[in-house]
């Protein structure tokens, strides 16, 4: 029961924080990915996680490697962008979307949906299937964006491990799915590939919420469990960006622990479903 | 004697509901620090745990939203499926980063971030559990100058987690479950 005496004092913490800021600056300068306004606590944990895994004595030395080794950067990028997702994640959300949003969308001649932070695509295919089952797919256009070009390649392919897919079938059922999820994918060895027809109205594009601009005239924006990684000023920017990108009466869907409360733009939206965070942009501009 | 403690962070796995309710029941309404706790649970669980624990606590208990302000005398329960971290500006940071020690929420995620943010103004408490989540984080809290308590293995429904922390040398005090709540009340509020 030997207690190590290696105290970590505030000076050391301050130096680490500076090193992390320099790392994020280096990434931005060299690779163009902007993590500088990401939530500090989570970002720090992820950097320190990679530091422990890679065995560098300090963040500074890891930064040196990031600057010289693109492959190492890609590994780190995968840590920094949280690519944890699943089909019909939060099934109750998709059920609520089906019951409370779809009836309104059915009155639109054309539907544009932006899924911001789509990661490896599981949720965009979830939405595509839902739209098909509701007879809306043919008049819908789905824009799936992410900051990370590597995950977009995976999203486009739509190939998922069969074990994970088996779990998704339960989500699908709880989300109010009308058929069997296996009807939308073909099994191949230990993977499944999503049906080609689901992809025909999906556009995949890279977009950085921290730096890029309005993605215009959307009827629905889905951005679930992305804002939690941003600091509050960046959250405010992104909510404004969504407000500007939505048509009047368009829907905004956030993660179940994300709130408009701290965004300074709460008045622009009506609450459609409080616990599942479905909001609707007011028909009459709030500042008119 | 009252100490300048801003927060108490606690973690438990197997047997945690009983341990948390026992401890929270012993904290007075004028408890001056925020309490943040992680109980390992399945992602599909709802916020029932916060509701359950609120029945034992004189303090308000809630499962926080992201960026929610951390207030003294309030209890924050990590929502199922999310890691709960502490930002330096006294707000909650939630994350869906991959599970740590097969757990999300993970005790280490809370402990490391709180140790970073609060340094010596923190008390870490590691309770009953059947894996070794939390011991690294508790040791980090100790190294940052915070106070660390571990539930005695003999009073734990599952002793693996407390034992891991004790072997690591992360514990400044080892206490039986019934002693932890009164100890915290005494340590922070005084008699």
From TrEMBL, chain B:
Keywords: Chemotaxis, Hydrolase. Residues 1-184 form the CheB-type methylesterase domain. InterPro entries: CheB_C, Sig_transdc_resp-reg_Me-estase. The active site is at 13, 40, 133. GO terms for molecular function: phosphorelay response regulator activity; protein-glutamate methylesterase activity. It catalyses: [protein]-L-glutamate 5-O-methyl ester + H2O = L-glutamyl-[protein] + methanol + H(+). PROSITE patterns: CHEB. Its EC number is 3.1.1.61. One of its GO terms (biological process) is chemotaxis. Pfam families: CheB_methylest. This is protein-glutamate methylesterase.
């Amino acid at each position: 029961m030997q207690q190590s005496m290696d105290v970590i004092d505030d000076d050391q913490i301050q130096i680490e924080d500076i090193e992390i800021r320099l790392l994020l600056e280096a990434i931005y300068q060299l690779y163009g990915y902007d993590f500088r306004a990401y939530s500090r606590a989570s970002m720090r944990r992820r950097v320190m996680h990679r530091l422990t895994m890679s065995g560098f004595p300090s963040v500074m030395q890891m930064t040196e490697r990031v600057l010289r080794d693109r492959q190492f950067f890609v590994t780190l990028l995968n840590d920094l962008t949280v690519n944890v997702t699943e089909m019909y994640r939060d099934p109750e959300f998709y059920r609520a979307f089906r019951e409370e949003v779809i009836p309104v969308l059915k009155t639109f001649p054309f539907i544009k949906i932006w899924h911001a932070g789509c990661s490896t695509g599981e949720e965009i295919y979830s939405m595509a299937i839902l739209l098909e089952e509701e007879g809306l797919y043919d008049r819908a256009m789905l824009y799936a964006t992410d900051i990370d070009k590597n995950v977009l390649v995976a999203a486009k392919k739509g190939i998922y491990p069969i074990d994970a897919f088996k779990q998704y079938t339960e989500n699908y059922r709880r989300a109010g799915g009308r058929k069997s999820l296996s009807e939308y994918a073909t099994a191949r060895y230990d993977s499944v590939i999503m049906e080609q027809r689901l992809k025909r109205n999906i556009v995949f594009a890279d977009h950085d919420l921290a730096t890029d601009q309005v993605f215009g005239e959307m009827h629905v924006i889905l951005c679930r469990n992305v804002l939690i990684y941003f600091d509050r000023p960046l959250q405010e920017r992104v909510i404004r960006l969504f407000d500007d990108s939505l048509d009047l009466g368009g829907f905004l869907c956030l993660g179940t622990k994300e709130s408009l409360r701290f965004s300074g733009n709460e008045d622009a939206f009506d609450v459609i479903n409080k616990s599942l965070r479905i909001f609707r942009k007011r028909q009459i501009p709030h500042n008119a | 004697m009252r100490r300048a403690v801003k927060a108490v962070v606690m973690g438990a796995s197997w047997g945690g509901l009983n341990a948390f309710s026992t401890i929270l029941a012993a904290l007075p309404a004028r408890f001056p620090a925020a309490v943040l706790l992680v109980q390992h649970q399945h992602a599909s669980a709802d916020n029932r745990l916060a509701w359950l624990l609120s029945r034992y606590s004189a303090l308000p208990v809630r499962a926080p939203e992201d960026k929610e302000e951390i207030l003294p005398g309030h209890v924050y329960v990590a929502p199922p499926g999310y890691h709960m971290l502490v930002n330096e500006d006294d707000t909650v940071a939630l994350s869906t980063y991959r599970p740590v020690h097969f757990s999300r929420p993970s005790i280490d995620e809370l402990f490391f971030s709180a140790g970073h943010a609060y340094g010596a103004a923190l008390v870490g408490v590691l309770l009953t559990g059947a894996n070794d989540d939390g011991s690294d984080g508790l040791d980090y809290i100790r190294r940052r100058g915070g106070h660390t308590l571990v539930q005695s293995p003999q009073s734990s429904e599952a002793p693996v987690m407390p034992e891991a922390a004790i072997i690591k040398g992360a514990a400044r005090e080892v206490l039986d479950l019934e002693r932890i709540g009164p100890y915290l009340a005494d340590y922070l509020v005084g008699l």
